[in-house]
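Office hours follow-up: a student asked to see two folded examples consecutively, so here they are.
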Amino acid sequence: MDQAVQLSAVLGLAAAVFLGASTQRISGMGFALVSSPFIVMALGPYHGIMVVNLLGACSSLLIFLQVFRQVEYKKVALLLVPAVLMTFPGAWVASKMDGPWLSIGIAVMVILALGSSFLIRNLPAAQSNGLAIGAGAVSGFMSVTAGVSGPAIAGYAVASRWPQAKFAISVQLYFLVVSSSSLIAKGGIPDLSVAQWIACFGALVLGILLGNFLAPKIPPKFSRAFVVLVAFSGAISLLVNGIRHLS
């Protein structure tokens, strides 16, 4: 029975990673949005987010190596500086809130971030450096506490009218650096079993390969809608799970 439970947990972890990696390759973002609620439920809030940060960095690196010549480096740098700085206070908050309350906080942050990304569509085009700095700061804080850095950056991309094709390519460098910084700020590598490591990295590679195949075939609006739907579902499940464990 114990072996069946362990196998089920490993397969569930692999499925979350596979789905997140393929979504990341198709839409340019979504690894953490899609996978973090489910990985946190499997591994707990603190270590789960460490796994999300590590695998998110690996996913972005594998994609970045395919598209690095097309990255808009100056635009990414403006977002990265505040994002990296905010990972350190975020790590402190995450270490103090481990447990059900962090699960609830993560779920609420994901839901609010997704909701705000819809509201910001109604704002006029914003090209100011201030918006970029603010979006980077919020994104960096959420990366280390919730494992989710994408919604704030996606909101900035919409407001500043950053073309989707260029955004999807350039943001890989951003996610790579922010996820790595979040992991460093927490001071270590997550503790997983050999089977879990093999399942995670195998699912990561397979997910990206599937994404490479599907990316040219799926219109951007459909891939974005899929990210939001799965992320909302995962966040609500995590919220319910955290509330249940309060008692």
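And the second, which I mentioned at the end of office hours:
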Amino acid sequence: MTPTSPPGRVSIVIPCFNDGAYVGEAVESALAQTQPAVEIIVVDDGSTDATTRTVLEALQSDAVQVHRQGNRGLSAARNAGIALATGDYVLPLDSDDRISPDYVQLATAVLDARPRVGIVGGGIEFFGLTTGRARPTYDGIASMLFENRLYACSVTRRADWEAVGGYPEHVRFAEDWIYWLRILGLGRDVHILDETVWFYRQRPGQMTRDMGWRTATTAIVNAMRDQPDLYAAHMDVVTEYVDLKLSTLDTFRHRFGRLNDFASWAQTSLRRWRR
């Protein structure tokens, strides 16, 4: 009987900034994994809340490593945790979210068996302010150029993180999107699990909830600046996207012009009525 190699070791990295009310739940879900080859690293990104600092001190143990640093932002906290990681694979988990007990086992099985896969995600369940379920879809790298179709809590290879220079620390929004594009630029595939593996807390003030059109456009520009060769290689997709936006803008201008005419008429009529 041919011996089987042990599954790849997974490092779960949990950045935390003043999230003492929730981080314990995130760590609990990481400790509850059915696959024992798990390393848990919590990065305290300069928390100023006394309760959070107390909670993190209590979490420090043989099973949970707590790393402290000055406040540098989410990407830098993730990179710091991954730099300390010893696992073959990396699972970034936000401090107010949770993962299913079998997530590590399911993701590892895919990554061990399929060397070309660089990103593994799965179904999502929302809880808190809003509830519901969703499952990300991936239709090839072209579908990712102008829309982030993957979610933050996806598993990647540590070697790929090192190869692409980690998460971008110079951007404030959609840093995970740029990270995915960097990995896809290596020629990696994506696998989406059928199972629900990520429990995504919905609460007021989240960046993703507050992202308007201007922020979304800035995120696209940042992605294009970070990966110019990738976008140049798919110029047909870029051209189609720009043409669509220009058409939408022309339609808006046409309608807005009519609104201007109506506003001018209304103001003239009001002045006449007042006289």
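Two things to take away from it. The chain has nine helices and nine strands. The longest helix spans residues 235-274.
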